[in-house]
């Protein structure tokens, strides 16, 4: 049986189209994916992301343990800072990608919905030689993402918090009308925005407070389009148990430490190079849209496959990402779309270059 988030009734009242996703009934769209995607880039939207998993790690060895299992370096984090990382397996592949929140008395991990139990079990298995306490809090927490250029003024007006002090990939714990909340300047859209975490019993109240004024609801369809326009990976597409973070173009989130899972492969790939690489591409031809698992060709030879593809409303063209052999250096590729070979031009990521997100030039990731 599918689970429901605390906001399920809100989605039904807003006439959302509901679909199964990662074991949940989730809204894929309200007014339409194209409208919601454009509105997120121009104004602001609210996403229900309560299906995401939340895992807490405490204990004397919490930092040592996290450093062992993730690609990044959590020792760089200050209190309330957030870090993106890949959860590594022993072969240097990707168990998941996640956010690490360093809070004063604990680490708070936010993981992909479809991987929550897998990640929790993996962390418990890997922690046997560490003095840590690991809790799966996913069923206790509701999460909302407010994303778009107007996100900060909207939330400042409602929550009456000084959010200008919360920089990109930083967070704060506070109270709103006596309700404890964790709020961070993070998101999966490439726009400025915030994510709010509350206990589930306060979910309805927080939604009613935030869902005012110009804000509109957006579903999974728009969220996926927005992340693809930014070239962000999605687990199960660009990342999986066999793919390393280096192959996925995430080198800046890989830090070589004294001891970490998959070290042998990561070191080897850093020295000798990777076998496949992730590229972005687009079509100038109207209506030509790449889709997952379609084959990629160059000079008549198959060189890779599509991992994600969609129509970009903000660029008005079909865009995609995919893996090709690491020695490929061409400027265009060809994709077999339902028996027709279509040309795509390779481009640097992200596809959408200008957004409302202002990232400091120097930041610890």
TrEMBL record:
Catalysed reaction equations from the record: N(6)-[(R)-S(8)-aminomethyldihydrolipoyl]-L-lysyl-[protein] + (6S)-5,6,7,8-tetrahydrofolate = N(6)-[(R)-dihydrolipoyl]-L-lysyl-[protein] + (6R)-5,10-methylene-5,6,7,8-tetrahydrofolate + NH4(+)
Any GO BP: methylation
Ranges of residues in domain Aminomethyltransferase C-terminal: 276-353
Binding positions for substrate per the UniProt entry: 195
Enzyme Commission designation: 2.1.2.10
Entries under InterPro entries matching the protein: GcvT, GcvT/YgfZ/DmdA, GcvT/YgfZ_C, GcvT_bac, GcvT_C, GCVT_N, TrmE/GcvT-like
Domain GCVT N-terminal: 7-257
GO molecular function term, any single one: methyltransferase activity
Region forming the signal peptide: none
Pfam families noted in UniProt: GCV_T, GCV_T_C
Keywords: Aminotransferase, Methyltransferase, Transferase
Domain of life: Bacteria
Enzyme class: transferase
GO terms under cellular component: cytosol; glycine cleavage complex
Main function: The glycine cleavage system catalyzes the degradation of glycine.
HAMAP family listed in its UniProt record: GcvT
Assembly behavior: The glycine cleavage system is composed of four proteins: P, T, L and H.
The family this protein is said to belong to: Belongs to the GcvT family.
Protein name per the record: Aminomethyltransferase
Organism from which the protein derives: candidate division WOR-3 bacterium
């Amino acid at each position: 049986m599918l689970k429901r988030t605390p906001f399920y009734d809100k989605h039904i009242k807003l006439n959302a189209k509901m679909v199964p996703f990662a074991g949940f009934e989730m809204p894929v769209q309200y007014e339409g994916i194209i409208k919601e995607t454009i509105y997120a880039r121009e104004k602001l939207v609210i996403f229900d992301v309560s299906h995401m998993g939340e895992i807490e790690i405490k204990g004397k060895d919490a930092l040592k343990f996290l450093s062992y299992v993730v690609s990044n370096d959590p020792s760089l984090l200050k209190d309330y800072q957030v870090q993106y990382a890949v959860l590594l397996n022993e072969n240097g592949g990707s168990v998941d990608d996640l956010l690490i929140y360093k809070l004063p008395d604990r680490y708070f991990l936010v993981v992909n919905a479809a991987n929550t139990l897998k990640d929790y079990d993996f962390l418990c298995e890997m922690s046997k030689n560490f003095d840590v306490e690991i809790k799966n809090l996913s069923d206790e927490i509701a999460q909302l993402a407010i994303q778009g250029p107007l996100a900060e003024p909207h939330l400042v007006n409602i929550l009456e918090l000084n959010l200008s002090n919360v920089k990109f990939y930083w967070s704060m714990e506070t109270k709103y009308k006596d309700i404890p909340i964790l709020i961070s300047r993070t998101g999966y859209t490439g726009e400025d925005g915030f994510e709010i975490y509350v206990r589930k019993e306060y979910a309805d109240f927080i939604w009613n407070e935030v869902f005012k004024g110009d804000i509109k609801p957006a579903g999974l369809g728009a969220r996926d389009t927005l992340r693809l326009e930014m070239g962000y990976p999605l687990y199960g597409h660009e990342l999986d148990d066999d793919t390393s973070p280096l192959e996925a173009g995430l080198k800046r989130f890989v830090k070589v430490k004294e001891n970490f899972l998959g070290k042998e492969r990561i070191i080897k790939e850093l020295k000798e190079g990777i076998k496949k690489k992730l590229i972005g591409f687009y079509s100038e031809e109207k209506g030509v849209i790449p889709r997952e698992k379609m084959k990629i060709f160059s000079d008549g030879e198959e060189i890779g496959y599509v991992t994600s593809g969609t129509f970009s409303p903000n660029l008005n063209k079909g865009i995609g990402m995919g893996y090709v052999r690491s020695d490929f250096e061409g400027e265009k590729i060809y994709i077999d779309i339902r028996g027709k070979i279509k040309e795509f031009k390779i481009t640097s990521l992200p596809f959408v270059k200008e957004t409302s997100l202002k990232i400091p030039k120097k930041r610890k990731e």
